[in-house]
Amino acid sequence: MSLFSATSVCAIAWASFGLAHSLLATRGARARIQAWLGPAERLGYNLVAVVHLAAVLAISAWAFAGQAAFHLPLWFRVVLHIAQLVGLVVLAMALREYDLGLFSGMRQWRNGTAENLDGISEHLVVAGLHKYVRHPLYAASILLLLASATTPLGLATASFATLYFVIGLKF
To answer: Is the pTM of this model over 0.70?
Structure first.
């Protein structure tokens, strides 16, 4: 497949993810899902997102199959590996600042209590990494994606995922 065609397929796949992920997060869609799944609504939302994301990555890998890696000088590859390590450390630190049971929907499912459709009523966090960046998970993910962009697939994935994060931040 040509580079243009592969990039187009990847863009369409990411657009489908962004659109579906955003539409399923609307109040109306959440109310319908909650009527069907009850307290497992957020867990169901996250499972759909994971399956859809896996499909996007698989389709993108298929589209870019056979594309050679970029020829990067050794010093630049070292810088990228350091950036990946920093991204992983920031990601691990960020995950420690979240209630992952609440974030994933496991707590709501285990407790049998549906989430308020107006959103999770937690206070604004301004400590830890949140003191420096509003979305440390997004920041770490973007750093990891950009530092991993050593192939056309990696660059397309980093570009479209970052675009998704930036658009998602607006909403």
So the answer is: yes
